[in-house]
Design brief:
This protein is mostly helical and 108 residues long. The protein is built from three helices and no strands.
Length: 108
């Protein structure tokens, strides 16, 4: 094949694509109440788990210790910002309060 028969290399496109080609590629802003929602969901999950431990016969102290350890594990390594930050709503004292409220209800 002679050098005159070669095709020229394609030139890169200079056209900018202003919109993503798929809807799911467009970033959506985080909701303003995101941290509150995450805390509310986490407290509900802790209450559900506390109810389970109550029905299994665990004491309030044992349940509190287990849920505190689980929450610490979930947020390990500790982060000071972003969605992985352990909020004050998930402090050890807040977890103990959720467990106490759940045990006071005596879930059946």
């Amino acid at each position: 094949m002679s050098s005159s028969a070669r095709r020229p290399a394609p030139q890169p496109s200079t056209r900018q694509n202003p919109a993503p080609s798929f809807d799911w590629l467009a970033p959506t802003p985080a909701p303003a109440d995101g941290p509150e929602r995450r805390a509310r969901v986490a407290r509900a999950e802790l209450a559900d788990r506390a109810g389970l431990f109550y029905r299994l016969g665990f004491t309030e102290a044992e349940t509190t210790a287990r849920l505190v350890a689980r929450t610490a594990w979930e947020f390990d390594p500790a982060s000071t910002r972003g969605a992985h930050c352990r909020s004050a709503a998930l402090s050890d004292q807040a977890i103990a309060q959720v467990v106490a409220e759940t045990y006071a209800r005596r879930p059946g």
